[in-house]
Amino acid sequence: MLQKGIFRVLKKSAISSIFLLCALNLVSGQIRYSIPEELEHGAFVGNIADDLGLNTEELSRRKFRLVSAASIQYLDVNRMNGILFVNARIDREQICGQRVNCVLVLEAVAESPVEQYRVEIQILDVNDNSPIFQNKEIRLDVTESTLPGARFPLERAHDIDTVNNSIRTYQLSTNEHFSLDIRSRGQWKSPELIMNKLVDREIKSSYHLLLTALDGGSPTRSGTAHISITILDTNDNPPVFDKSVYIVSVKENVPLGTLLIKLNATDLDDGQNAAITYLFSSYNEPKITEIFTINPKSGAIHLKETLDFEEGSVYEIDVEARDGNVQPLSTHCSVRVEITDVNDNAPLLTLNSISGTVSEGDPSGTLIALISVIDQDSNKNGYIDCSISSNVPFDLKSSFSNSYRLITSAPLDRETTAQYRITVTCKDRGIPPLSTSRTIVVNISDVNDNAPRFTQPSYTVYVTENIEPGSYIGSVTALDLDINRNSQLSYSILENQIQSVPLSSYLYINTNNGSIYSKRPLDYEQIKRFQFHVRVQDAGLPSLSSDVVVRVIVLDQNDNPPSIISWKSKNNTSLRVPRTAKPGHLVIKIFASDADSGKNAQLSYQLNQASVPGLFKVSHSSGEVRSVRHFKDGDATTQTLIVQVKDNGFPPLSATTTLTLTLIDEGISHQPDVTEPRQDLKETKQLTFYIIISLGATSFILLVVIIVLVVVICPIGNRTASGGACSFASCCSTKEWECQNSNFNLQVTPDFHIVPSLLEVRGNGSLSGTCRYKIRSAPESGAMFFAPLPHMAMVAGKETRYMLPDSPRMRKSCPDHVSDNNNV
User: Fold this and answer.
1) What CATH number is attached to the domain comprising 662?
2) Which residue stretches of the chain have pLDDT < 50?
3) Domain presence at residue 638
4) How many domains are contained in the chain?
5) Could you tell me the pTM of the whole model?
6) Which helix (H) or strand (E) holds 334?
7) Residues 317, 353 share a domain
8) Beta carbons within 8 Å of 303's beta carbon, 6+ residues apart
9) How far, in Å, are 263, 373, 724 from residue 318 at the CA level?
10) Are 563 and 655 within 8 A, CB to CB?
11) Are residue 634 and residue 708 in the same domain, yes or no?
12) How far is 208 from 259, CA to CA, in rounded Å?
């Protein structure tokens, strides 16, 4: 981005103010221009026609052209105006390398008569190249004995730009041991690393610095290289033992070659200076080398001959540790070996017929191993007792003298414990007793005794309708406690039908990982939700399986535009509007529906176009078309309105309809029949509409009957607890409530819900509303009363509460669209 910005500035500069360095030499026919590199195609260089004294008409007539020895035509001439312009990208470093003076020589030729001109183009350098180190990592080896002031020449960076755009200086990352000095060698600047402070390999063995080369361009470009300095060791530290005296206690009957102790000495130096050699020093008695041996590399001291407590109870061994330098440094320690007198022979265990693997399905008593044990001692020291580890499902049974059987004692479960390490211990009865232990590793092989289990009791997947076939919609996951083949799971969908269509035509599942994909798009308007079963089955013999329910909920998309119900009146005549109509006169109500749901089905109406603006308006929410003002004699008889219905989806979809209105002088009686739907509307929508109207009418009639009965039987303010009031405290059943007195029998259907102190009346149908009544008991008897109900409204709205002044007191909560003609 920085380079492009530089080129853009240079281009503007070249176009606006490229100057001619050398004036036209009329005698020699030579002309010279100066331009920066990297100009874009078409950049202005100069007016060569004016500079050569040629008019623009001669350029075409005399076939004026440029001839260059280069394979690329970097510049060209516009014969229409004589402008010399850049024809191809000019890279100064590619043409001239790192020469300070870069000149591109061209020959301008004109015919009739033939004239030749030498054109020199001086290419000016642009800082378009960053410094580069040939090696991104510079490695140096410095001994820790190197004195401060030592210099280490470093690789210099290269910049193919020239003069001021070439390398200007170097920088080194901050550290306390090294600094940077820059020396000029001819036209190049070379960096040198200077040691300022002594280094100690034992404190820090390496240093990592960053060398940065900066050029002189504007803006400055840089390049970096990493310097890795390895500190080489000098032999300035002797070996050191962690103790000066080591004490070892060993039994007299230990076998030959027994490891008595492994000495460890450390040397802070590195390499050969830290290579330690262990040896017995010359200060030892001669018999030390006869009884013991020492490993010169590891420092391990082993027993070379049999020990006998009666011959010697203590041995003092002097050990020397020496480093690997030509002039080695050394250190000494003392090893004190104490011999103890014990029972000479421990029991010897022999394991036979070991079964390293047993199936978890094998019965109790399965043989694992045969064990035999002997003791070379006699009398009491030769009697042996054997036992095994506690808390394991195994048992050690004695077959006969010094012979045992290791068997299973309980059912095995690999999923609980896959491996047992059974330690068999045999101990003699000597004083002190000797014992020998052996560990038997028993692996439990798997049996397919665990069915796979899903990680959830059920899954719910949300899928957007119209999803592309092959899209991922969800996944199920199951786990199997078994292993190997018994835990290799395979998923499948149990065949089912969705609206008489096989489930397999909608979905498929990845048998290996349980991912579920779609085969075909889903339509929310047809299928809103469905469920199916997924089965997971392992590969065991016999195989085990489990099922899980996957519920798919289809999410709606706004893929259905609104459908406008026809506004045409009978006989296909236009809508008639009386000229005498007042402002706000209802011309027509436009009905529309949307097959989507939720916000996608929320419709709004607007007037897109009218033959006379401001004469009619459309309600945004209801679709009612009303007049705005009084009609005038000058208003046209025929008015055309274009109404748009738009849903609230994203993106919104819309539909339009055109209304043709005729202004007539007759009365308002010529209102069009706006309730008749268009003939081409689907029968299903007609049926739905009629059902809603029927349900609403039925609910309204039922409500009126109930109100009449209540008003006749239970007039407000005339009933007490002892009179013929309707008490709901004790006459309620699960299916209907019934209130009786001597004069009437009132039944309330399940659409009326009574809870303590509340009566709720609900209508049926998609357009019906709900009224709630607050019931309070009479102060005299505690009986519950209700008042006559108002008629039901067909639209839902904001709740309004009413409070009766006298007992029985009631509140009702109804939509505010409901007229309150009946004073509750």
Assistant:
1) 2.60.40.60
2) 1-28, 569-572, 668-684, 716-824
3) yes
4) 7
5) 0.39
6) strand 330-340
7) no
8) 250, 254, 255, 256, 257, 258, 260, 291, 292
9) 12, 41, 122
10) yes
11) no
12) 45
